Amino acid sequence: MASVAELKEKHAAATASVNSLRERLRQRRETLLDTDVARYSKSQGRLPVSFNPTDLVCCRTLQGHSGKVYSLDWTPEKNWIVSASQDGRLIVWNALTSQKTHAIKLHCPWVMTCAFAPNGQSVACGGLDSACSIFNLNSQADRDGNMPVSRILTGHKGYVSSCQYVPDQETRLITSSGDQTCVLWDVTTGQRISIFGGEFPSGHTADVQSVSINSSNTNMFVSGSCDTTVRLWDIRIASRAVRTYHGHEGDVNSVKFFPDGHRFGTGSDDGTCRLFDMRTGHQLQVYSRVPDRNDDELPTVTSIAFSISGRLLFAGYSNGDCYVWDTLLAEVVLNLGNLQNSHDGRISCLGMSSDGSALCTGSWDKNLKIWAFSGHRKIV
Amino acid sequence: MQVGGGGGGGGGDSADLRGRHRIQAELKKLEQEARFLEEELEELEKADKVSSALQELLTAMERKADPLLPVSTGPVNQSWDRWFEGPQDLRRCKCWFL
């Protein structure tokens, strides 16, 4: 048996080897970064998107929560939205009519995230109770008007920060948690199918804040963490992350797949959004805001969403701004936070309707707003 | 990001044993990590420069109709403008507490 001293020696050598490999990887990546999206797009003659002042307008305000809105999600087919709030309720909205169809009082009011099932028949939510609760929207409410929980997914050892159903699979859901892991669940049985991270190497080393499933290949998902990295996972191989993406210098609060499924965007406490190439791991672009005179400290990015083509990147910031970035030119083309009828507080969550015709924003001002294009659309 | 140094053993035999187990576990993790990094490096040796992937990004993006853009490719879907038409579903609110 090797002595402690010998093991220590081996450990030191392995540490040096890992550090050297990381450095080689970094250097190799640098040699491949011959341009970024903005420089390339300019070289190809692309001009920034230009909005008139009334092109993107707030066309609905969804009022009903009595606390900050923390999370929202659209149904894939209908114009329905579920929102989760500090008031301890989920509200299901018909976004077109602004009417509420369901208000669900939660047993644990400390909710952080919510999601609609692909068929629009169930909603899921999670938060500080470290569980994910599923509600069937066709269930009958009890005498007090409370909706029964149809399933509680337990097993996380920390808060549930984010949840998303696997597209086209009502029975599969992925959660991220403060326990540094993500979990794939069978919603029907309540069983954990796979745990991503935790004791395995190449897992996150701090709280996981956000997940996004690739709609082009639903076996793949990305997770963003307070360890400043994003990791790509294959749900068929839980034992290791497929790839780790470095670059951010703060917690990664939001990850979102790009509509083509080949790239993904991130939003971080370091104040930047970034675009990564999933396959190669290249960081394609950094979207950095110019420091504002009013910024005592750099606002953090709380949530992101892409327009359906990917040309627009919406980013909510901790100071109440909601920038619309031109993804190609890396320029801010609009600030929804400054527009008429905008929110009075921080925009905490963003979501794009499935057909891309409307953006929903949720805010600490207790409201949700629907934004759509009302200008003259030029078709080329 | 640098990997930190390993922990040392304690004074007595049991501390020695604990130290040995811990270092062995860390060593295993490091060796696995090194294998993953070597694989990534190998892949990266064959990877193209960033610029080669960007034409595909531009083409894919500009091929897709986007209802939120002032200038977009077609086809236009009439339902995009439903947000500016009158409410279409005025069924009674089914919510119990409001």
TrEMBL record, chain A:
It holds the Pfam family WD40_Gbeta. GO terms for biological process: G protein-coupled receptor signaling pathway. Transmembrane segments: none annotated. GO terms for cellular component: cytoplasm; heterotrimeric G-protein complex. InterPro entries: G-protein_beta_1-5, WD40/YVTN_repeat-like_dom_sf, WD40_G-protein_beta-like, WD40_PAC1, WD40_repeat_CS, WD40_repeat_dom_sf, WD40_rpt. WD repeats lie at residues 62-103, 153-195, 201-243, 245-286, 340-380. Belongs to the WD repeat G protein beta family. This is Guanine nucleotide-binding protein subunit beta. The lineage of its organism: Eukaryota, Viridiplantae, Streptophyta, Embryophyta, Tracheophyta.
UniProtKB/TrEMBL annotation, chain B:
InterPro entries: G-protein_gamma-like_dom, GG1/2. One of its GO terms (cellular component) is plasma membrane. GO terms for biological process: G protein-coupled receptor signaling pathway. It comes from the Eukaryota. Pfam families: G-gamma. Residues 24-98 form the G protein gamma domain. It is found in: Cell membrane. Keywords: Cell membrane, Coiled coil, Membrane, Transducer. Residues 20-64 form a coiled coil. PANTHER family: GUANINE NUCLEOTIDE-BINDING PROTEIN SUBUNIT GAMMA 1 (PTHR35129:SF1). This is G protein gamma domain-containing protein.
